[in-house]
Amino acid sequence: MPQPDRAVVLVVGAESPTGLGVARALRDEGLTLVGLAADVTASPCRSALWHEIVHDGGDDAQARIAAIRATATRYGRPVLVPVRDDVVELVAAHADELRTVVDFVLPPADVVTTLLDKTAFHSWAVDHGFPVPHTEIVADQAALDAALARVPYPAVVKPFERTPEWQAASPRHKAYRLQSAADVDRLGFRLLDAAPRFVVQQWIPGTDADVWFCLVYRDRTGREVASQVGRKLVQWPVGTGSTALAATAADDDLHTLTRDLLDAAGHIGIGSLEVKRSTADGKLYITEPTVGRPNLQSNIATAAGVNLTVLQVRDALGLPLPTVPAPRPAVWIHETTILRALAVAAARRALDVRALVGALRGAKGRMAAFSAPADRTPLTAELRRLGGKAAGAVQRKARRGQAAPMTASAPVKS
Which pLDDT does position 171 carry in this prediction? Predict the structure, then answer.
C-alpha cells in the first residue's frame, strides 16, 4: 500500500530500461514508485526502487485502462508516467476518462497522432518546412516494390510499429540498411509477414556519432522549461540500432530546430527530437520525434543535472518547478551492448575514437541502462537472462547437429 504522505508515481512500461530510468531519476524525491509492466519478471522490475510491480493488463486497451484504474484506486490518484508509444497513444485517446483517477502532462490526442504516426508526421513536417529525408509508408507488396524502386540508395526499411511478429523474426534489428532493392530478398523473412506497415526511408550518410538528439520538458502552457542536447557515439546494432553510448553536447541549431518543431506542433510535457547530421552536406535531417515520454537515453540529462522527469512529476502535481542548474558533462551507457557495439564499429572503421575518449574522460556524471550504485540487481538479472539465452542457443545448435543424418557405413563382414 502507499506510504503515508508520499506522492505516488505510476510508471507504465516498467519492464523496460526506460521505465527503470524513470525510477532512477526519481529515487531521491521521496516518492512511492509503482510499475505497471507487460512482463513482471523482466530485469528492470527487479530494482529495489519499486514499491510494487503490477501486470499492465496485456495488449487489450480496456484491460490496460482497467489496470491503471485499479492501481490508481488502491494508491489514491498517482501521477501517470508512460514510457512506451502505445501507452502514450492509449492515455491520449482516453485522456478525459483517465484524468478522473490519475494526473499526467501529455500532448493532446491530435498532437500525439501527428507526431507519432509516421505517415502523418512526414507530411506535416514537409508542409511546415522541416528537414526530413525521403520517406514512404507502405502496407502491401505492390507499394513496397514501388517504394523500393523510387527511394534513393542507400535506404533504410523499418516496421511502422515493432509487432511481436517483427520481434520474433528480427530480435536484434529495429531497421535494415539496404544498398539496393534486392537486399530485401536476403533478409531471411518476408517483411509483410512480420508487420502490416513499413517505412522506406532514404539513408542519411554518416556514422553513429552523427546521430544527435535534444531532450526537453515543456510545461502545460508549452513553455520550454529545460533541455539537454546529446549525441550518440555508438549504437547496437551499429548503424541502425539503439543507443549503446551517448554523451552530452551543445548544438544551438538542433535546439532551435527542436523548439520550432514542438512549438509548431503544440507539444507539451516531456519529449525529444532525434536527427542525423549528414556528412554529405552538413545539414540536420530529422529521423524521429519522441512524444510525451522519455526515451532510452533520457537519463543522460539526469546525469548532467537536468532532471526532466522531476519536472514532469512536479508539473503533473501542480507544484512549482525548480530552477534548472547549468548542465555538467555526462555520459549514458547500455552495459549489455556497449562492448559488442564498440568492437563492430571499430572493425568497420566507423568509431569516432577522439569523441569517445573525450566524452569518457570529461564526464562528471554517468548513468546506465541497468546498473546503479546500491541497485545492481537489474544488471545481474539481465546478465543471467542473456547468459541463459546464449546457453539455450548453444544447446539447440548442438541438438540440431546430433539430429543430422549420418552417412551410411559399409556393411560389416561376418
Answer: 85
pLDDT digits (tens, 9 = 90+) for 236-279: 999 989 999 999 999 999 999 999 999 999 999 999 999 999 99
pLDDT of residue 5: 55
Q: Report the C-alpha gap between 71 and 109 in whole angstroms.
A: 23
Who's near 322: CB < 8 A, 6+ residues apart? 310, 311, 314
Please give the pLDDT value at position 161: 82
Q: Is the dihedral of CA 213, 214, 217, 222 positive or negative?
A: negative
The whole-number average pLDDT for the span 53-69 is 95
What SS3 class is residue 262? helix
On the 0-12 / 13-18 / 19+ scale of CB atoms within 10 A, 23 is buried
Provide the grid cell at 287.
529521423
What CATH code would you report for 208-368? 3.30.470.20
CATH no. for 8-105: 3.40.50.20
- CA gap 158, 197 in Å, rounded: 9
- Fold of the domain spanning 134-202: Dna Ligase; domain 1 (3.30.1490)
